[in-house]
Design goal:
Elements (H helix, E strand, L loop, with lengths): L12 E4 L15 H6 L1 H7 L3 E4 L3 E2 L11 E5 L6 H13 L3 E6 L9 H6 L13 E3 L18 E4 L4 E4 L14 H16 L4 E4 L20 H13 L5 E5 L5 H7 L9 E3 L22 H15 L6 E2 L9 H4 L7 H13 L4 E5 L19 H12 L4 H11 L36 H5 L5 H14 L1 H5 L1 E5 L6 E8 L2 E8 L5 E2 L9 E5 L8 E2 L4 E5 L1
Parallel strand pairs: 1-2, 1-13, 2-5, 5-9, 9-10, 10-11, 12-13
Antiparallel strand pairs: 3-4, 6-8, 7-8, 14-15, 15-16, 16-20, 17-19, 18-20
Helix pairs in contact: 5-6, 7-8, 10-14, 11-12
The structure holds 1-O-alpha-D-glucopyranosyl-D-fructose and calcium ion.
The site of 1-O-alpha-D-glucopyranosyl-D-fructose has 13 residues, from loops.
Length: 537
């Protein structure tokens, strides 16, 4: 008898980027009442939890990842009553709400920072990371992720403060126990409101040590995370997932230890970095090393088996859309989107579906003026100043801008894809008339229907949850094939990851039950472009 597993091991999570999901009041920005309106759709898809990107009060310098009040809702998204209604309405449909907690930094408009910057004597001064200095000579040459120095001068106190992201996102000082206790109190307040879990933004950057130029995986990281878990999560049936760009398998075994001393799981990004030039940035484009991709997934599946728990994702609000990135968003868009879904959802772990992924939404082919993201706009300026050609910079931005994921959800073929009756804050992808939910929900061969089936299969067959993982044809240049085994039952996932027909060394069709297939017929012994199937033996 399997050890009674946590609900989130059988669950599928749907990420909503509220600003781009559904507008309800015609201001061109998605909001909470809009999400409530779409709960029926999410219940039809069959997901178990919704991860909401931040909706707390924020000046929106980084689209809400700069929070100025952790316990109030930004009027742009609605009211606290809307939030409470969302929690209640979702619960009625068996859906939990996961809040995005941004604990590495606050907004510079947070009252803590407003007080901290006034005086070194303020009780909030040391809620942040300050260094004495002389204006014009920052403590060291560390760079911020969104460009420029990570030190910003405040004349009132004659000091620099540290910010890993934008200067409007001052880093919180986790070495300060008073600050930590206020954070834990705030989280407990949200738990009492019925929040079902938390996504923890750049959580592996909280134990920063700027004097040693340490920004990630700091020496006190797990001490702080264990305290956070003990003080705020324990005793509640929550799902907690940390965003950990710096995680390797050993560290992930701590993060996702079965004793829940830290989190349920983390988002690790080793697979995500495989199409950037080694040692460089995501903007430095590089062909995907497909064999390495398979080996990376296999490593994480094996390393965490019985010792931790994987998240499974291709997309989020920071990443380009997978069907454009590693599938084919042209002739084989439908087949490749389904193939990518089957490859991911057949593995062990909790799958995350990013809004629009279930429709096969694609990257946006924007002109420069259509981009909105601070990271994209900064890199354009930085690389322009560094002498990169306009064409090279735009190629990088087209491929990797976070705005690729942030174009409005495509609901229907009506104006603005049914997202808003107003002027959308960011342009709708012009392909919305071919790619939208209304049409796909009625079509059992649609990408939407494929995701619906995958979510249902995960609940129907324990091998998806408990089975071990064995990669096959490891070095094959096109086939992504693996098997899962649980109590004598075998699940095979066969996929042609590329756009040319390949011979299949072993042919299992006919031996078992075909659970999924992304073509309407079969061609004996070969897999056609992006052809994939799942078979149960
Ligand atoms: O992202 C962490 C982060 O570092 C990413 O922005 C990453 O650097 C970039 O997208 C790819 O190189 C989290 C949030 O997901 C992101 O939206 C926020 O902008 C960031 O933290 C700051 O809060
Ligand atoms: Ca709105």
């Amino acid at each position: 008898m399997e050890q009674m597993e946590k609900w989130w091991k059988q669950a599928v999570v749907y990420q909503i980027y509220p600003r781009s999901f559904q507008d309800s009041n015609g201001d061109g920005i998605g909001d909470l009442p809009g999400i409530i309106r779409r709960l029926e759709y999410l219940q039809t898809l069959g997901i178990d939890a919704i991860w909401l990107s931040p909706v707390c009060k924020s000046p929106q310098k980084d689209n809400g990842y700069d929070i100025s009040d952790y316990q109030d809702i930004d009027p742009m998204f609605g009211t606290m009553e809307d939030m409470e209604r969302l929690i209640t309405e979702a619960k009625k449909r068996g859906i939990r709400i996961i809040l995005d907690l941004v604990l590495n930094h606050s907004s510079d408009q947070h009252v803590w920072f407003q007080e901290a910057r006034k005086s070194r004597e303020s009780r909030y001064h040391d809620y942040y990371v300050w260094r004495d200095g002389v204006e014009g000579t920052p403590p060291n040459d560390m760079k911020a992720i969104f460009g420029g120095s990570c030190w910003e001068w405040v004349p009132e106190v004659g000091q620099y403060y540290f910010h890993q992201f934008a200067k409007e996102q001052p880093d919180l000082n986790w070495d300060n126990p008073a600050m930590r206790q206020e954070i834990y109190q705030m989280i407990r307040w949200w738990v009492d409101k019925g929040i079902g879990g938390f996504r923890l933004d750049v959580i592996d950057q909280i134990a920063k040590e700027p004097d040693q130029k340490i920004t990630i995986n700091g020496p006190k990281l797990h001490t702080y995370i264990r305290e956070l878990s003990r003080e705020a999560f324990w005793g509640h049936d929550l799902i907690t997932v940390g965003e950990a760009w710096g995680a390797d398998c050993d560290r992930a075994k701590l993060y996702s230890a079965p004793d829940e001393s830290e989190f349920s799981m983390v988002f690790q990004f080793e697979h995500i970095g495989l199409d950037q030039e080694p040692g460089k940035e995501k903007w430095d484009l590089y062909p995907l090393d497909f064999v390495k991709l398979k080996q990376t997934f296999a490593k994480w599946q094996k390393e965490l088996y019985g010792q931790g728990w994987n998240s499974l994702f291709w997309n989020n609000h920071d990443l380009p859309r997978i069907v454009s990135r590693w599938g084919n968003d042209g002739v084989y868009r439908v087949e490749s989107a389904k193939m990518l879904a089957m490859v991911l959802h057949g593995m062990q772990g909790t799958p995350y579906i990013y809004q629009g992924e279930e429709l096969g939404m694609t990257n946006a082919d924007f002109t420069l003026d259509q981009y909105r993201d601070i990271e994209t706009l900064n890199v354009y300026q930085e690389r322009k100043a560094a002498g990169y050609s306009e064409a090279e910079i735009l190629a990088s931005i087209h491929a990797k801008s976070r705005d690729n994921a942030r174009t409005p959800m495509q609901w229907s073929g009506e104006a603005n894809a049914g997202f808003t009756t107003g002027l959308p804050w960011i342009a709708v992808n012009p392909n919305y008339q071919e790619i939208h939910a209304e049409q796909q929900m009625k079509d059992e061969t649609s990408i939407f229907s494929c995701y619906q089936k995958l979510i249902a299969l995960r609940k129907q067959y324990p091998v998806f949850i408990y089975g071990d993982f064995q990669l096959m044809y490891e070095t094959h240049p096109d086939l992504f094939v693996y098997q899962r085994t649980w109590k004598g039952q075998k699940l095979f996932v066969y996929a042609n990851f590329h756009g040319t027909e390949v011979a299949v060394p072993e042919w299992h069709i006919g031996d078992g039950t075909v659970l999924m297939h992304n073509y309407s017929d079969w061609k004996e012994g070969v897999l056609r472009p992006y052809e994939a199937y799942m078979v149960l033996l």
